[in-house]
Amino acid sequence: MNALAPTPGAPDPRLERALAFHRAGAVGEAAALYEAVLESRPDDVDALHLLGVARRAQGRRHEAAELVRRALRLAPGLADTWYNLGNIETDLGNEAAAAEAFERAVGLRPSEATFWFALGCARARLGCAERAIDAYRRALAVDPEHLAARHNLANQLFELGDDRAAASELRAVAERAPDLAEAHYNLARALLRSGDYTTGFAEYVWRWRVAAFPDRERWPELPVWQGEPLSGRTLLVQAEQGYGDTIQFVRLLPMVASLGPRVRLEVPARLVRLLSGVDGAEAVLPIGPSPPEADLRIPLLDLPHRLGLTLGSIPRAVPYLRAESARIRQWRERLGRDGRLLVAMCWRGNPAAPIDRGRSLPSPEPLAAALDHPAVRRLALTEPGVHPLEPIEGGSGWKLAGVEPTVEHPGPELDAGPDGFVDSAALLELADLVVTTDTAIAHLAGALARPTWLLLPRSADWRWLRERTDSPWYPTMRLFRQTTAGDWEAPLAAVASALDQLRAERQVLKG
Fold it and tell me: In whole angstroms, what is the distance from residue 238 CA to residue 303 CA?
C-alpha cells in the first residue's frame, strides 16, 4: 500500500493530472509528468515523493528510495512520505531502515492504524516479537476491526509461546473472517501445541486452503474419506509435507486398518524402501504421475482428525519401523567398535527449507563441543552436502572438515541412490545415543525406539507440545528446549551434563 496524496497547499497543476494517471494505474504517464515538474522545480517535495512511489511500482526500487529520501530531507515532517519510504526499504530487504521509517510515520501520525501495522510487520521481520506485539496492539487500539493486525498479533504471541492468547485472537479473526484459511490453520497450530488435539486437528484441515502452505493435495478426483464406513473398500493414505511428518504419522495406519479397509500408502519414492512392510499398509507405493487404484483417499495428517486422536490415544508402541539387518551388519563391520559411547548427531536439516530457520544449529561445532569427551565417539548423520567432508588422517573413513573435536561421518555414500534413510536407520540402530535438532532423523530415531535427545527452539513445532521434557509420540525421546529464543547455550549445556550422567551410569553398570 502507498499513500498517494500531495502535501497541503497549492501544488503544480501538472501534479493533479499526474495523480489522476497514477490512481488510474497509468504509472508510466504519471512518472513522465512528475519528471516534467522536477525539471523546472527540482526541489518540489510532492513530485519527488510521488515519482519515488511510481518508481517503486515500476520495480526501480533503489531509485525510488533515493527520490523519497530527497523529499524527506526537504520536508521531514511528512508522515505519508515516511510510510512510503518504509515500504520501499521493505522491498529492498532493509528491515531496520524500514522499521525506522515506519517509526517516524507513527510518531507524526499516531492515529493511523496502517502505520502501526506496517511497523509491527517490520519489527516481526527483525525478530523483535514483543515490540511487534506492541505495534499491532496500538493498531488495534486505533482500529479494533483491523483483522490483519489481529492475525499478526496472534502469530507473534504464538512465537513467544503464549498459545492460549494466540488462540483467543485467532478465534476472533476466524469469527470475523470465517473463510480466512490462514487464521484457521494458525489456530490449529496453537491448539495442537497446547495439547487440544480434538479441535486442533479439526482446524488443521484448513491447511490445504493456505496459499503459502508448502504442499498441495494430490488426486482431487478421488473422494476424500469423511469418516464413513470403510469395510471392504480401498483407502489411499497420502504422505504429505516432509519426510519427518510421514515417519511420525505412519504409526496410525494400524488404527485405520482396523476399520476394515485395504490401506495403500502413497509416499515419496525415497521412502518406499524404508516404509515397506510397515504395519497397517497392504502396499507402499511411490508417488507417481497418476492416482493409484482406490475408492477413497485421505492425506496422512488428516488421519488424527478422522480417528478422533487425543494425547491419551496416541499409539505408543515402538519400534514401528525397523532397519534392514544386512545394512546393520554392513555398517557394524565398517565402523567397528572401540569401547567408546557412539553418539549419532545431527545439527540441521535441509538448509534450503524455510521451515529449518530457527530450529537448527548454525554449525556442528557447538553440538560437537557439548559431546566432547575421550569416552565419546561422535558420528554425524547429515546429508553429505550439508557440511564439507574430508578423509580421516592416518585412518579410514570420513569426518566433518575443519570441525574440532572430531566428528566422523559415514561418507558420501550415506543414503545415496534412490532409497532414503536405509543407511541412517542402520546407523541409528548401532548408536548408543542420538542427539539431534528437529529433523527427520529425530522422527526416524524415535520410530526405531532409539535413545534420543532432541534439541528444540524456544518456539518449537506444535508436535512437541509446550514445556514438556518428554514426548507422547516417542517414549524413548528426551527434549532439551531453549529458554531464550535463538540461544542454544542452555540446552547444549544440559545435553553435556546429561551425557556426563549417562557415562557415569554406564561405568557403574560395567563395574
Answer: 10
